[in-house]
Design brief:
The protein is of the alpha+beta class. It folds into 2 domains: 211 residues, Rossmann fold, CATH 3.40.50.300; 70 residues, no CATH class. Helix content is 21%, strand content 34%. It starts with a strand and ends with a strand.
Length: 296
């Protein structure tokens, strides 16, 4: 758990102010548009940005601790891979010089699908490959808290969601918490313990469930969760007109969050997510009568 009090900092012309913020739970997200202060907040938590105020981690004051003493791993947007080392040396640097765990190395490498990259230099990697290597390096360092600044932004939609699901599974297995920065609401679909919304250097709100969200000027979850794309056009779905069938329609998966069903539907090469409160009776979903074209 993190408690932040009276945090104030400046980066160039940008000013971030966080009077009081509590981030608790295993999987937290910081959401906002580009330039809203998300990266600056992570840098403060990691100890890489000078600031006023206090930061508490699990009831311990870490405000004046150097970054290496905070038990926090940060994956910045720039990734900061070491260009003079190949991939495997980048990943294992915390094993050699810190408290990284050799016992989880092979599992992390295989889980992120980077074994074929191990002998490559970082300048030989694509941006998406470099992001996966940076994630592997952070995981192997075995932090109690991992800060991720849009680490999968260069991946396609499906790969990004799958990578985030993997991080979530590993956090459960190895017992670390993570804070994930994003401006894409689809990254929130698998649930969150805390959602912090930032705008123009200020906290808009901090909530622990979808039901608590009040402000939508930077996060349009209500619209997002009911919109699909078909043949290049956008449609809003009416929950009242959705139908279920055993044999025809679209396949879907169900995630349950506080009594609300989140349906994950694969449509025309993309995943759509729809919140639904009613009874699900059938293996497929029929949407023809439930969609209304909208300008988007």
């Amino acid at each position: 758990m993190l408690e932040i009090k009276n945090l104030r900092t400046r980066r160039g012309d940008f000013f971030l102010s966080v009077p009081n913020l509590e981030i608790k739970g295993r999987n937290s997200f910081v959401f906002g548009r580009n330039g809203s202060g998300k990266s600056t907040l992570l840098l403060c938590i990691a100890g890489l940005q000078m600031h006023e105020g206090k930061i508490m981690k699990n009831n311990c004051d870490i405000t004046k601790l150097p970054p290496e003493k905070r038990d926090i791993a940060l994956i910045p947007q720039e990734l900061d891979l070491f260009p003079n080392m190949n991939v495997i040396k980048n990943i294992t640097i915390s094993i050699k010089y810190g408290k990284g765990k050799d016992s989880i190395l092979d599992e992390i490498i295989d889980a992120l699908g980077i074994r074929k990259l191990l002998s490559k230099r970082t300048w030989e990697l694509s941006q998406g490959e470099a992001q996966r290597v940076a994630v592997a390096r952070a995981l192997v360092s075995s932090p109690s808290l991992m800060l991720m600044d849009e680490p999968f932004s260069m991946q396609d939609e499906i790969s990004r969601i799958n990578s985030l699901s993997l991080i979530d599974d590993l956090s459960k297995k190895y017992g670390f918490e993570y804070i994930y920065v994003t401006h894409n609401p689809k990254d929130l679909d698998l649930g969150f313990s805390t959602l912090v919304t930032l705008d123009e250097g200020n906290i808009v709100e901090s909530v622990h469930s979808l039901k608590e969200i009040i402000h939508y000027r930077t996060l349009s979850l209500l619209d997002y969760a009911r919109i699909i794309k078909l043949n290049g056009k956008y449609y809003r779905i009416s929950e009242e007109k959705m139908k279920f069938d055993q044999f025809r329609g679209y396949d879907f998966e169900v995630f349950n969050n506080e009594g609300v069903h989140l349906l994950k539907i694969y449509i025309e090469g993309n995943y759509a997510f729809i919140r639904f409160h009613g009874r699900i009776d059938g293996k497929k979903i029929i949407l023809e009568d439930a969609i209304e074209e909208i300008p988007y």
